[in-house]
Amino acid sequence: MTAELPGEGAAIARCPHCEAPVEGPEDRFCCHGCETAYHLLQDMGLGEWYAKRESPGARPETSDHAWNAVPVQRTPRGDCTTLAIDGLRCTSCTWVVERVLERTEGVQAAQVSYATGRAKVTWDPEVVDLERLASRIAAIGYAPRPVDAPAPPDPLFTNLAVAVFGTANLMLLTAAIYASWLDGMEPRFMVLFRWGALALATPIATWSAEPFWRGAFAGIRERRIGMDVPIALAVGVLYVHGLVQTLRGAEAYLDSLGMLVTLLLVGRILESRGRRDTADAAAAIASRLPRTARRRTVDGVEEVSPSDLAPGDLLELGPGTEIAADATLTEGALQVQTSMLTGETAPRTLAVGDDLLAGSVVLEGTGAARVVRAGENTTAMRMAEAVREAIDRPTVDNPANDLAPTFTAATIAVAALAGAAWSWAVSIPVGVEVAVAVLVVACPCALGLAVPLGVSAGLGALARRGVLLRDGDALLRLGEIDTVAIDKTGTLTFGEPTVLVADDAVLRVAAGLERASGHPIARAITREAVRRRIPLPMPQELQETAGVGVEGVLDGHRYALRSGGAGRVELLADGVVTGSIELGDRPREDAVQAMAALKAADLGVTVLSGDVSEATERLAHEVGVDAFHGSLLPHDKAAWIGQHGRVLFVGDGLNDGPALGAAHVGLAMRTGAGTALGVADGIIARDGLAPLVAAVRGARATRTAIRANLRRSLVYNALAVTAAAAGLVNPLVAAILMPFSSALVIHGASRVERELSRT
Fold it and tell me: Is 367 left (phi over 0), alpha (psi -120 to 50) or beta?
């Protein structure tokens, strides 16, 4: 028995979920999977997606991944992991997947990124498991997979393969037709070749060009003129022209249609890859972190997942070890490579007390390190999250969003006028060719890419240098500042007492008396004695009195340490003052260079401090800053900032919260108080002030790159459309130029990294 095609009177409808053609009434589904997906969304209250979606739903398919083997991170809210989601065609797909996850019982949080094609999910393992969550995603037509599982081939490659095959054969047929102009050809072969060319061009114009048709219809349905509209018009005009010419027995030039679609698909694939490479900067940081860690226990050393580490754990380190958490070196000396996080190619030598960042690699040496931050709290993961959130939840006001639709409408009008003028002046085929060239060569997408790509590149470049910004708006505002106000204690300085002046003999006795004390002054004295390699003596009859000082017997004398006034400690021997130690808050090693760099960037620099004016003045002059204000209360700092325009304020203390909130941009040191970190627009996640200078330079480079991209896009489009309308650009050249303009924008966005690498 043979299957029969439907008769002419058979009703043809579309599947309510995936819009595949089906026989029967409007509510008939093409398969059980689509019916299940449709009712699932309706039952969850997400039926509105069908009205707002930009593309049809994907047909559900089964998944064979081993979900119980996917590594998860245990957090206070539950298990957490990141999944790759294939099949996200537009932002409405992102919306529906995110809502389905959020409304699944047991899910604590879900965030789906269209830019990276990934979903971050946190769930209660007592209520739901990862396999159930994956099945919910698959049930509505999207394909979840572990992030380390190989991705399926881009469906555009299939469209391109058909276009390349068809175009290659089209060119063979049309080459024979063109050759017949010289030597002639029998009419029957000419008819065969012309209809053969039309047969080859049909799947190219319909199936291969389907992404452009789908995008154009989606935009028209939403009353939005997108970049796919002029492309679809160009393909449609060329195909209809070729069909009419074939029916008339005239030259159809369908090889131009095949080359046009092929080149446009190549451009779309390259552009998509460039955008994804930019957006995947955050995922690359996280994916390069180690999967295991060696943790010391009372029984020896055990190998654990980084998600099992907690602050206070002791890590065993050796050559080749990848650091799995932010930690402080407690034993040994190491040489480490930190290029993944800091961009520094030269290895760093670390001693006891130095910080280690997750993602660093031990090159030489052995030792142990105490975990300070683990899991999602590590600097690397916070860097990745900061960039990812900025890409996934962009808050940047992009003027191109309003300009691109207007430009596209103007392009269509110019194409129509130019085509009509050339048709009247020369011939209809020439007019059609000019109109197609205008439609193809215009590239409003280059305008739309300029701001988001520039911001993404800037956020990634600064994150690699230890500056984590909250969003793209903060980055653009940072490029507008004209003044830098900087806190003293804990920002310009280390925020703890340091020995400034002391004789070795006095320091030896003082360090012996203070060796067992945990007071900040005691730590400063013993730290300086160790730095000078002074052996610490062991006193007798040691006694410490809170608020008074410490005393003991050493070398046959009774010594005592007492306060000698602001910033000074006196040493008494048998009740007589025999020496003193000058203490102060030492500026950071790179403070002088950082302040000089900020001033060289034509920025006004002012020190704002709650410390006494004398100490503030001394520190300001020491680091090369002329303007300073001391003895300021928190609201005084905020008031000063409010009177001085676009100010970048950098602070760390609890009292810096009002100033950080009042500033045009506020940056907090990573060691700062929780309130300061919460109010700030960003965090300086590395020690020192070099990241501050990098932040200013990077923000300015980002603004410059964005402006250059916008200018470049406008100039390109103006010249290209004008040239095409004048008949100087044919459709094939236009198809080459169109993706080239987007490639220029992607290249321009990388200027931020290049600029920072040169400084």
Answer: left
Mean pLDDT of 364-392: 71
CB-neighbour burial class of residue 425 (10 A; exposed 0-12, middle 13-18, buried 19+): exposed
For the stretch 128-148, pLDDT in tens is 888 888 888 887 777 788 876
Neighbouring-strand partners of residue 501: 582
Structure tokens at 575: 């009740």
CA proximity to 295, closest of 238, 245, 369:
369
Task: Please name the helix (run of DSSP H) or strand (run of DSSP E) that holds residue 323, with its range, or none.
Answer: none
Six token digits for residue 260: 């046009």
Q: Is 32 exposed, middle or buried (0-12, 13-18, 19+ CB in 10 A)?
A: exposed
Type of residue found at 140: I
* DSSP 8-class letter at 31: S
The span from the CA of 728 to the CA of 734, in Å, is 10
Q: Is the dihedral of CA 512, 515, 516, 521 positive or negative?
A: positive
Sign of torsion over alpha carbons 618, 622, 628, 629: negative
Using CB atoms within 10 Å of the CB of residue 406, give its burial: 0 to 12 exposed, 13 to 18 middle, 19+ buried.
Answer: exposed
Which residues is 468 bridged to in the sheet? Answer: 683
Are 676 and 650 within 8 A, CB to CB? no
588 pLDDT band, cuts 50/70/90, is confident
Q: Can you tell me the distance from the alpha carbon of 602 to that of 619, in angstroms, rounded to the nearest whole number?
A: 21
1-6, long-range: CB < 8 A, 24+ apart: none
CA atoms within 13 A on the CB side of 639: 6
Helices (H), 552-682: 591-600, 613-622, 634-642, 657-662, 674-679
DSSP string, 612-639: -HHHHHHHHHHTT--EEE-S--HHHHHH
Cβ-contact 398, 447 below 8 angstroms: no
The CATH code of domain 495-586 reads 3.40.1110.10
CB 452 within 8 A of CB 446: no
Mean pLDDT of 734-747: 65
Return the CATH fold of 67-146. Answer: Alpha-Beta Plaits (3.30.70)
Q: What is the DSSP letter of 426?
A: T
User: How far is it, in rounded angstroms, from Cα 244 to Cα 387?
Assistant: 52
Q: Are 684 and 467 in contact (CB under 8 A)?
A: yes
SS3 label, residue 360? coil
The Cα–Cα gap between 356 and 342 comes to: 12
User: Residue 203: CB partners within 8 Å, gap ≥ 6?
Assistant: 162, 166
Count, residues in the chain: 759
- Residue-range domain boundaries for the chain: 12-45, 67-146, 155-280+394-454, 290-375, 495-586
> What is 290-375's CATH number?
2.70.150.10
Q: Report the pLDDT value the prediction gives residue 485, as an integer from 0 to 100.
A: 93
Joined together, the tokens standing for residue 287 give 């994916």
Angle between helices 731-749 and 428-441 (to 10 degrees): 10
In the block, residue with structure tokens 């004008």 = 722
Mean pLDDT for the stretch of residues 384-398: 49
Q: DSSP secondary-structure letter at 322?
A: B
- pLDDT score recorded for residue 393: 44
Give which of 588, 582, 593, 516 is closest to 551, Cα–Cα: 516
More confident residue, 565 or 684: 684
Any residues with CB less than 8 A from the CB of 530 and at least 6 apart, and which? 511, 536
Answer whether 129's CB lies under 8 Å from 105's CB: no
**Which H or E run contains 588?**
none
Residue 189 in tokens: 């072969």
What type of residue is 608? L
